[in-house]
Design a protein that fits this description.
The protein has 2 helices and 43 strands. By secondary structure, the protein is an all-beta fold. It has a domain of 103 residues: Sandwich (lipopolysaccharide transport protein A fold), CATH 2.60.450.
C-alpha cells in the first residue's frame, strides 16, 4: 500500500523538478532531512524510498546518491549509484553503502575514503565501518598522496586485514610498499600512526652503515602508557662494535614533569662497557620548586664515539644539577647540589657541590641606595685534594645619579671562609675579607639627519679589589682577586634606511700590570642590510701581536639562498679555522644545505655536511653526506644517509 507524502514543483532551467522534503521529527530524537526528485513511504515496512538527486542530511553529515532506502525504526539506510557521504572528519565516495545513520556504521562497497585531518586516502572493495572512527577492509590501499587513484599515487601501501582507527593507527598484514603502482618492498605486518594521536607500537627503524661502526639497525618500540605518560625502547645494532640498549620514560601532569633515559652499549672493538644516564624532573608544591637535571657517562669518550650531533662531540663538561627553591618576601632560600664531569681530564678533575645552601636577597631600596645579598654555605668534594666546606657572604650597596651623564657606583663586601681537608698548601681554615668597588659612567649623543641617524655612546668604568690571599680554586668565587682596572669604550653607529653600520672600540688599563698596563685592545664592527658582515679582533700592544680575530659574512644571493663564510683565529690556542655554508631553496621541490669547517693549523678538514632535499606533496627525500674528523687514534668517519619521509606516516631512514 503506497501513500504519497507530498510534492512541490519548481521550474529551474528545465521542464520540471520534483522534490519532496520530509523531516522525521516525531519518531526520532534527531532530525533527518530528505530531498529527492521522488520520495515514497511504504507503511507496512516503515521505509522511505527516494530516487533521483537524493540528499539526506543529518546533524554534521550529508549523504547523496541516485537512489536510497531509509528504514525509519532502525535508522538503517541503503544507498546506491554515485554515493557520497561527508562529515566534518571524512569524505567517502562509494558505489553502494549499507549505513546506519544513527550509529554511522555499516558496509561500503568499492569505496574511496578521505580523512581530512592528515590527508589520508583509503581505497577498498569491501570496507566495514565498525564505528564512527573505525574502519576494516579485507584488502585496501593506503596513502597520503593526492591522486585520481590511491593505487597509482606517488607511493602507497597495499595490504590485507587493514584496520584503521581515525586519529590513532593504521595496521595491515602482507603489506607491499608501492611507488607509482610498482611494488618495491614487502612486510608481513605494518603499523603506522594516523594523525597526531599517540599509539603503542613499533616506529620505523633506522638502517645504516658507518665506516667506523659498520652496518647499523636500530628499531624502536613506543609505549603509550596513558594520556600523560609514555616510554620508548630502542636497540642499536652495530656490526663492528656491538649492541646498544636504551629506555626513555616521560611524564607530565599539573605539578610534575620529567624524562629519564638509560643506555648501555658493549663495544667489542674498544673493549668497553659504555653507560649513559640522563634525567630531568621538575616539581612544584605551591611556591616551592624542585628541579633535577642529571647527565652521566662512565667513559669520557662516549660522545666522541657515539654522539649524533657536533655539539655533543665537542662539549668539554657534563653538568648535573639538583635544586630546591623556596621564595620569601623579596628573597629566596635554595638548596643546591651540582657536579661536573670533565670529558677531557676525567671524572675526578672538577669539584662537586654536595650540597650548597644559599640565601639571596633581591634588589631592595634603602632610601637612595639599592641593597642585594648573595650568600651560600657549600660542601665541595672531589677524589683529589683539596676539598672541604666554604661559606661566602657577599652584600652589595649601589647608588646611581645623574641624567645627562648617568653614573652608577656599587660597593660589595665579601667574607669567604673555609674548612679544608688534606690541603698542604693552605692552613686548615683559611679565610678572606675583602671588598669590590665599581663605577661606571655612560652617555649618549644622537643626531638625526635627513637620510641617516648618528649615535655615539662613550663609557668609562673602573673596578677595584684590594690584594687578597691565595685560596684553593673551587669555582668563580675564588677568582675574586686583586684588581685595579679602568676601561674606556666608544660605540658609534650610523642608521640608514636600508642598512646600518655599528662599531665599538674598548681599551683597559691595568694598574697592577707593572710596566705593561695596557690590556689587549678590542674592536667590534657589524654591517647589516643587503648582506650581514661581522668582525671582532683583539690586539696586544705590549706584544705587538693580534691575539684573536673573528669574522663572518652572510649574503642573500637570491630570494631564498643564503651563503655564509667565516673565520676564527686565536693565537694562544693555535686556532685558525675557516667555515663556509650555503642554505638554498632552489625550487618549490629542491633545496640544499652545506657546511664545511677547515682548520689550517694542522687539523685540516673538520666536520662537513651536505644535504639535498626533494619535497613532494606527500613525501620527501633528504640525502646527506657527512664527514666526522678523526684524531691520532682513529681515521675520519664518512656516512651516506637517505631520509625518506612519507607525510603522515613518519620517517623511514636508509643510511
Amino acid at each position: 500500500m503506497k501513500q504519497a507524502i507530498g510534492h512541490r514543483l519548481w521550474v529551474i532551467g528545465r521542464n520540471y523538478l520534483l522534490s519532496i522534503v520530509y523531516c522525521l521529527l516525531p519518531a526520532l530524537s534527531w532530525a533527518i532531512t530528505i530531498t529527492a526528485d521522488h520520495l515514497e513511504h511504504f507503511k507496512e515496512e516503515d521505509k522511505y524510498v527516494a530516487t533521483g538527486n537524493v540528499r539526506i542530511e543529518e546533524e554534521g553529515s550529508v549523504l547523496t546518491a541516485d537512489r536510497a532506502v531509509l528504514y525509519q525504526k532502525t535508522s538503517d539506510a541503503e544507498a546506491m549509484g554515485n554515493v557520497i557521504y561527508e562529515d566534518n572528519e571524512t569524505f567517502i565516495n562509494t558505489e553502494r553503502t549499507e549505513l546506519n545513520l544513527k550509529t554511522k556504521t555499516g558496509k561500503l562497497y568499492n569505496a574511496l575514503i578521505f580523512f581530512k585531518k592528515g590527508n589520508y586516502w583509503v581505497n577498498g572493495d569491501n570496507v566495514s565501518k565498525i564505528k564512527e572512527d573505525h574502519y576494516y577492509a579485507d584488502t585496501a590501499t593506503f596513502t597520503t598522496c593526492d591522486s585520481e587513484s590511491p593505487s597509482k599515487a606517488d607511493w602507497c601501501f597495499k595490504g590485507s586485514n587493514v584496520d584503521i582507527i581515525v586519529g590513532k593507527k593504521f595496521t595491515a598484514q602482507n603489506v607491499t610498499y608501492r611507488v607509482k603502482g610498482i611494488p618495491l618492498l614487502y612486510s608481513p605486518y605494518m603499523w603506522a600512526p594516523v594523525k597526531t594521536e599517540r599509539e603503542t607500537g613499533f616506529l620505523f627503524p633506522v638502517i645504516g652503515n658507518s665506516t667506523r661502526k659498520g652496518f647499523q639497525f636500530s628499531p624502536t618500540f613506543f609505549w603509550a602508557i596513558d594520556e600523560n605518560k609514555d616510554a620508548t625502547f630502542n636497540l642499536d645494532y652495530y656490526s663492528k662494535r656491538g649492541i646498544g640498549k636504551g629506555i626513555e620514560y616521560r611524564y607530565l601532569d599539573f605539578d610534575d614533569k620529567g624524562k629519564w633515559y638509560i643506555y648501555h652499549l658493549k663495544d667489542r672493538e674498544l673493549k668497553k662497557d659504555f653507560y649513559e644516564f640522563k634525567g630531568m624532573h621538575d616539581h612544584r608544591l605551591g611556591d616551592i620548586r624542585g628541579y633535577m637535571d642529571i647527565n652521566y657517562v662512565n667513559h669520557e669518550d662516549f660522545y666522541k664515539e657515539y654522539g649524533h650531533k657536533r655539539d655533543m662531540r665537542i662539549q668539554r663538561f657534563l653538568q648535573s644539577t639538583g635544586e630546591i627553591s623556596a621564595p620569601l618576601q623579596n628573597a629566596r632560600l635554595y638548596l643546591l647540589g651540582q657536579q661536573w664531569i670533565d670529558l677531557k681530564e676525567g671524572h675526578t678533575a672538577v669539584p662537586k657541590r654536595l650540597p650548597e645552601f644559599g640565601y639571596v636577597v633581591n634588589p631592595t631600596s634603602i632610601g637612595p641606595l639599592m641593597f642585594t645579598l648573595n650568600s651560600g654555605l657549600a660542601n665541595f668534594y672531589r677524589q683529589r685534594e683539596p676539598r672541604g666546606q666554604r661559606i661566602d657572604i657577599n652584600p652589595t650597596l649601589s647608588y646611581s645619579f645623574g641624567e645627562t651623564v648617568p653614573i652608577f657606583q656599587s660597593l660589595s663586601l665579601r667574607e669567604t671562609a673555609y674548612n679544608l681537608k688534606n690541603a698542604p698548601s693552605y692552613n686548615s681554615a683559611p679565610h678572606r675579607e675583602t671588598f669590590e668597588y665599581r663605577a661606571n659612567a655612560l652617555t649618549r649623543f644622537t643626531k638625526r639627519f635627513e637620510s641617516f641617524t648618528h649615535v655615539i655612546e662613550p663609557s668609562l668604568s673602573y673596578t677595584f679589589i684590594p690584594e687578597t690571599h691565595p685560596l684553593p680554586l673551587f669555582d668563580s668565587t675564588e677568582l675574586f682577586d686583586k684588581t685595579s682596572v679602568a676601561s674606556l669604550s666608544l660605540y658609534n653607529s650610523l642608521g640608514f634606511k636600508n642598512f646600518s653600520l655599528a662599531a665599538s672600540i674598548s681599551q683597559s688599563l691595568n694598574f697592577n700590570a707593572g710596566d705593561r698596563p695596557l690590556s689587549p685592545t678590542t674592536l667590534q664592527a657589524s654591517l647589516s642590510g643587503p648582506f650581514t658582515l661581522s668582525f671582532d679582533a683583539s690586539y696586544d700592544f705590549n706584544k705587538g701581536k693580534t691575539e684573536t680575530m673573528n669574522s663572518g659574512l652572510s649574503v642573500k644571493v637570491a630570494d631564498k639562498t643564503n651563503v655564509s663564510i667565516g673565520e676564527r683565529y686565536a693565537r694562544e690556542s693555535k686556532l685558525m679555522q675557516y667555515t663556509a655554508g650555503i642554505d638554498s631553496v632552489l625550487t618549490r621541490r629542491w633545496s640544499v644545505n652545506a657546511n664545511v669547517w677547515y682548520d689550517s693549523k694542522g687539523a685540516g678538514l673538520r666536520d662537513s655536511t651536505l644535504k639535498v632535499i626533494y619535497t613532494q606533496q606527500c613525501w620527501m627525500v633528504n640525502v646527506a653526506l657527512t664527514r666526522r674528523p678523526g684524531d691520532n687514534t682513529r681515521p675520519p668517519e664518512y656516512s651516506f644517509m637517505v631520509f625518506i619521509e612519507l607525510k603522515g606516516i613518519g620517517i623511514l631512514k636508509v643510511l
